[in-house]
Amino acid sequence: MEPIELLSKIVSIDSVFPGEAELAHFLAAQLEGAGFAVELQEFQPGRYNVLAEKGEGRPVLLAGHMDTVPPHNYERDPLKLEEMDGKLYGLGAYDMKAGIAAIVKAAEKTARPVKIMFVSDEENESLGCYQAIKSGFLDNVEFVIVPEISDVHEMAGHTRTITLGRRGRSEYAIAVHGKGFHAAHLERGISAITEASAIAIEIEKMNSGLPSDPFMGRGDIFVRKISAESNSLSVPDSADMVVSRHLVSGETIESALDGLRKTMDSMHSAGLLRNQMKKPEVNIRKRDVPYLLPYLTKKEHPGVRRLASIIERKFGVPANYNAGMSVADENLIAMQGIPVISFGPIGDGEHSCSEWVSKNSYLELIDILQEFVA
């Protein structure tokens, strides 16, 4: 298939997590046709990773995720690729179906040892990538390129931004305690919803004082969920909160937990919470995959220098470097001690009904990846 035809086909296959199976089978067939040995790795019933390899020796790994988020507020068909003013619109076109299409095209005629990994569940908890890592598929990999979104949205210019690292992410559960009582006597109860609201406001204030990194910027924190209700005409006596935190270099899951607990202690001692008998309880929210730590691959790494030299030779301009503001499967790969960078197309509107990818940058991405693995 020609590049635009391939991307159109990939966009047309619904792969909203956890429904990635059809796209996994399609991509497996494409790679088998290009001479790769392919495994469909089932990590949950009906959910697959595509693991492919060609050649002998220590390979470069090209990786990407097949899943998208659900479409919201689309006024056109989200599964139909549409071109307008040099932009290709469609669900997942930027995040990251252009990236996986570019991998397929770039690897068709590769001569060096290459592995390809297309995983599911990146938009959720990275369960697919975690399973692929546990299986040992990445054990002999020397360098990883993931054509994930680049956080570059300006149509002018060329595809030349290398994402050297990403902030990390963790989540915390806060159990908030009120005091239940008949709502006819509100003064005798303490609403856990009101307490949780005060906590949410204070957490928002934390953003100005969080650690920062010269390359990644500042970490951030926000309340992602509050759950509470009462039975009948009663003051709610408990609430559960989920807090999401982006981490920068030097921070850990535990250091962020300690900062959140200190904020709760300060609120309690300052009388900002009415329930002085029982403080909020803060813990790391449990999940099946480790939370993702921040990482940074050095510009001096041979793989980064090789990619930068290809960019400069093709476009006559030096490569740009940035850090991703949110997490991706790359964080999990980097946590295994494997050098990884993101190098994706130009686009915008990810996770929205206005998602687009630059046609030129998609074609440039194929060209650059082809030369890298030639």
Order of the strands making up the biggest sheet: 1-2-6-3-7-17
The share of residues in extended strands comes to 25-35%
For the record, give the distance between the C-alpha atoms at the N and C termini, rounded to a whole number. 20 Å
Structural class per helix/strand content?
alpha+beta
How many β-strand runs?
19
Mean pLDDT: 96
Overall CATH class of the largest domain = Alpha Beta
Sheet of most strands: 6 strands, mixed
Strand/helix succession? HHEEEEEHEHEEEHEEEEHEEHEHEEEH
Which labels suit this protein?
374 residues, alpha+beta, Aminopeptidase, Alpha-Beta Plaits, 9 helices, 19 strands
Quick summary:
By secondary structure, the chain is of the alpha+beta class.
Structure write-up:
The protein has 374 residues and is an alpha+beta fold. The protein contains nine helices and 19 strands. The protein has helices at 3-12, 21-33, 93-106, 127-134, 192-205, 253-269, 302-315, 329-334, 359-372, and strands at residues 37-44, 47-54, 60-65, 82-84, 87-89, 114-119, 143-146, 161-166, 168-177, 212-213, 217-218, 220-227, 238-247, 281-284, 295-296, 320-324, 340-342, 347-348, 356-358. A hairpin with a 2-residue loop joins strand 1 and strand 2. Helix 1 (3-12) packs across helix 3 and helix 3 (93-106) runs parallel beside helix 9. The two termini are 20 Å apart. The relative contact order is 0.19. The mean pLDDT is 96.
